[in-house]
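Subgroup meeting minutes
Present: P.N., E.W., G.H.
Scribe: E.W.

1. P.N. recapped why we're keeping a running log of single-chain structure predictions: easier to compare across weeks, and new members can see raw inputs and outputs side by side.
2. G.H. added today's entry (145 aa).
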Amino acid sequence: DSTYDRIMESLNEQPENCASIALNALCWLSTACRTLTIDELRIAVSIMPDTSQLDEDFIPHESVITDICAGLVVMDKESGTVRLAHFTVQEYLIRKNIVPPEAHSTLAISCTTYLGFNIFGQGACTSKEAFESRLASHPFLNYAA
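Output recorded in log:
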């Protein structure tokens, strides 16, 4: 635990916004139902409760996420996915309550907030092409739904 304790200490010594994004990313990666793509994670950590749209200015670059997570996450460039560096990271985060017991609820709220964004208010897609276009332009939609 001492190694992870030191990493978490350095993570928490970052500017507040960076530490917040890192902790949010670690929560997502520890709790998500499946492996996330880097674009899904970038959007997931940017969703603010009680909002009706995503603020593009707050979506971190993929390298920012890997940098601020202090070696606890790795990105597979070939598949475009991101994951915790080792299964012991998840065990540590849960054991130390860094990922809180209500994390699943927090993720669910983020997903429902995202699905309630104004951009999706136009209703269901009327064709397969329209659906594929919507998925391509909204990378978090597949996970959130």
